[in-house]
Each structure stands twice: as structure tokens, then as C-alpha cells.
Amino acid sequence: MNPLDWSLISGPLPVILLPSALLALAWLAAGRNAPGRGRLWRGLPGRGGARGGSAGGAVSARWLVVCVPLIVVAAGAVTALLTWLINNVWRPFPDLLPFTVVFWSWVALAGVVLTFARQPLLRTWPRRAAAIGAGVLVLAAAANQVNGYFGSYPSLRVVLAPWLAPAPVLIRTANVAEVVPKPGRALAGMWQPPPGMPKTGAVYQVKIPGVRSGFAARPGYVYLPPAYLVTPRPQLPVLVLLAGQPGDPRQWVDSGRIQAMMDAYALHHKGLAPVVIIPDDLGSEFADPLCMNSRLGDVQTYLTVDVPDWVTTHLQVRSPGHGWAVGGFSAGGTCAIQLATQVPRLYPVFLDISGQFEPTLGSRRLTISKAFGGDGAAYARVDPPIVLAHTRFPHDAGVFVAGAADSVYTPQQRALYRAARHAGMHVTFMDLPGGHNWRVWGDGLERNLAWLAAELGITGRAR
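Request: output the structure for the sequence above.
Response:
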């Protein structure tokens, strides 16, 4: 197997990487110094350091007893300070940083400081290079522990995908003859693939400007199934997918394996699958405009006006509101239920994977203050649980997905599911193994593709 495809989450690589990094960290802390380097710096002698004596190849006692503990404690203090600033001052995320992220950040920082602190104690360049290598190993292991928590990068190929396999840019597809679905009939029953239809679809990068909203979106992505790439082509439904925060649209392409997932479905359904649109709803990696129109940006207008306008202008698909669905994970899942309750005619079908109970910047009070200048009524008009409590949605259909080990978001998903049922929505709840990570997010979409296809008219509707 190509090393780029070795698993970073399971298998031998992470099993080897972690203990190797811990040994490297121990060597950085207690490894032997070079001859004649018994002092860490001038005025700090080691065992026999001032006279040279036996300290030639030994570890400085002062280094072990004073410096190493001081570095570890200082790294912990800096990590704690940064964590406090992120959680309480900057607040780029609605929830606190997970313990796994904080702990391995501490380990990584301690490894970096130890790497640089050891350099004056090592006489030869090979030894110094070895110390740098040890520090890199500690960093890699710490990063992979965080990666394992979220499951974002299953292999190095996924990590390097934006550079190894950049998606071609799509400007516009040419119009060809269409097979238009008839009312009450599933598209799969009408469609016969023409000779030469490719076995796989294609992913393209697209730029969807915020013409009406003024929202400065980053590039998005489009998946076109095999049936779209032939003449005539069927008039396909649209699935709008949204990523979590922090993140970007490419998460669904790389970590979410959207092409492989959709191609696998299309392979058994005459090349048919939804056209998948993955727009940017954040604006930047750490922004959180909450998928609504507020002081933080007119994201709802972007997703309900600009994106549909661009899609219908550049692609041959079903008209907005007739075979359109929206889905997402984490903050993207929250956005999906927001759009389903705000514009049910456009997005009557939704998939909320590990979403929040309501859009938040950390607390309702802070959210109302920052997004609406203290106007609680304006927030109430777009808050899904409040809207669901006062409005009926008999034509909406959705699925709520949560991880069995996700103690934060699963209770919120269950509460929102109950509210949606109370509002007359045709909804189900799916509990999957895993936490707040890609094990749940990817499976959450894949296991509901058949349901989505039925709701969108590709196959017979389940309800």
C-alpha cells in the first residue's frame, strides 16, 4: 500500500507513532549531553559542571531537577492561559475546547521548548538534528492524537489532498437535452443510461459570489454524478451540504469522501445521485456568523438566494424547492434545521448531523448581544426551537443524527428532534457509534442516502 494511504487513525502507524514520540520526549528531557556541555547556560553548573569533571557526557543534575520541571510547568501555564483566552475572550467556538485538544497542545508545546532548550547542550550538528527530529516527532504525535479525536484526516493523502489533487474549477456546464421527471414518478423508473456513461462522477471547485447578500464566501465545491455527465441528462435534485466550524467546504470533499460516497450510490442506481453543492457559510476558518441574517453577516440570504441563483444559472438541475435538500454536521447541522424552519419551501428536506439545539456563540445572552444588538425578539424569530414551538411544518421531512458517545450534542439533538415532531415534521432520530467526529458525520450522511434519494424523487418516496 502507498504510504500516503496508511491510516492515521487506526492500524499500526498510530500505535507506533505514540510510543515513539513519548520516548523522544523522554530523551529530550533526560538524554545525555555532549562532552564538555555540562552547563545549560553560564552560571548554571551541572554535576561537576564548573570543573568539567564527570559531567562530560552526563545529564546536568540542574537540568533534570530544575529546568525540565520548569519547562513542563511553564508549557502547562501557557497552554492554560491560551485555553482561557480562547474559551473566554476570543471565543471562536461556541463550546469549550475539548480536554484532548488542551492536553496534547500542552505536550506539543513542552516538546518544542525542550527541543530548543537542548540545543546549547549538544556539541555536534547530528545531535542537534536528532533533537529537532525528536521535537518534530512529538509534534506529529500530538497533532495525530487531536486528529484521532475528530477523525478529520484518515490518511496523509487526505492531509495533502488540496495540494496533491486540487479540484478543477467549474465555470458553467453546457445545457443539453434533459429527461424531466413526471409528477408522482421516481426518476429511476424513467431513466435509462446512454452508452458510454462514466462510472464515476466529478468534483469541481466553484466560486459562488454573494450578489444579493454581500457575503464574502470562500470557494465552494460541486459534485456532479455520472448521469449528469452524459447527453441527455436527467434533471437531478440538489443536496446542499454545509461543514462544521472551524472548517471549510473542502471538509466534505476530503474528510467526508463525498465523491466516493456518491459514486458508490450512483453505481447501483443507474448513475443517479443528487447534485451536491457545498457552499461556504462561514467566511473564514474561525468565523461563526450563525447561518442567519444579523450583524455578523447575511448568511441566510446567501444560502437561500445567492446559492440557488448561482446553481440554476450554472447547472441543469431541478428548480429550487422541488427536489432540494440541505444537510450538514455540527454547526452545519444547526444551519440545516435553521434553513428548514426559515425557508421550508426551498429546503423541505434536511439532515441535521450532530447539530446544536440552537445557534449560539456560547450563550443565548452573548449571541443576542453580538448578533442582534440585544434584540431578543429578532433572535427568537430565527431560533429553531422557538420557531418549532409556534409553527407547524407538516410538509417538512428530516433526520437527526447523533453520536452515542457525544455527551454534549446528543442530548441537544434529542431535544430538537422532540420539538420537530411536536411541530408536525416527519422526522426520525438516528443514534450512531462514535462521538463528535467524522465517524458519525460521514456515516450519518451515507446511511441516509437512500432516504434522501427517496425524498428527492430519485427513487420512490418512503412516506
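Residues 156 and 220 are 22 Å apart (CA to CA).
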